Amino acid sequence: MPSPAESAEEAAASPPADAQISATQSATYWSQIPATLDGMLGGFARIAPHDEADSRAFIARLLAPRPPSQSPSRAADCGAGIGRVARKVLAPYFAPVDVVEPDARFLETYRRGGQVRGEVVCSRLQEWTPARGAYGLVWNQWCLGHLTEAEVVAYLRRCWAGVGPGGWVVVKENVGREDVYDGVDSSVTRAEQTWARVFERAGLRVVCEAGENWAVELGLFPVRMWALVEEEGA
């Protein structure tokens, strides 16, 4: 994962970030990554406890106003990798938890870990369409940078169609001062204003958001979380 300063220098002399995304290059990159915690987090396995604690706190904020009887049940972890978020973040609050991931190796590692209480779906996000109203929460973390902006907009629209009454689509991503392309894994770190445009195009609005300070302290891009619902009148 490049530092913000390094990425900004590369971006200055490059074509628009979104135009450089290659699904083939992304798939090739991930096919060479070990199905381990350190592999999933780009060599930063040490951030996992901080990340998971902040994500659980975010979900607790969403659920806090509701009695348990009104809390949504089923969740999906999209771009799930080996299922770290499914197990450590979503499972304490939702059951069952489905995982959606394009790399079959990562899914096999998830299965071998046991306690699989949901569907295991091998699919690219660009092609995944959830059943209508099936989920209380669809969680997307550190995966949407591999999709072009148009693909993200279409994907988020499908995600929302898969969310039942009172549910949310959550996006958790690194953000930069501008859109920055990473040629290593063929992904884009988007600026907050870009995400705002993406959500608007998808017909969604932010109802809860949070940031994480530990990423900046480690010299990484800041991390933002957004809980999304349909824009009124969309």
Please tag this protein with its features.
234 residues, alpha/beta, nine-stranded mixed beta sheet, 9 helices, 9 strands, 35% helix
Note down, in words, how this protein is organized.
With 234 residues, the chain is α/β, with parallel strands linked by helices. 35% of the residues lie in helices and 25% in strands. It contains nine helices and nine strands. The chain has helices at residues 4-12, 23-31, 37-40, 48-63, 84-90, 104-112, 149-161, 192-201, 213-217, and strands spanning 75-78, 97-101, 120-122, 135-141, 163-176, 180-182, 187-191, 204-212, 223-230. Helix 6 links the parallel strand 2 and strand 3. Helix 4 packs across helix 5. The radius of gyration is 17 Å and the shape is globular. The model has no long low-confidence stretch (mean pLDDT 92).
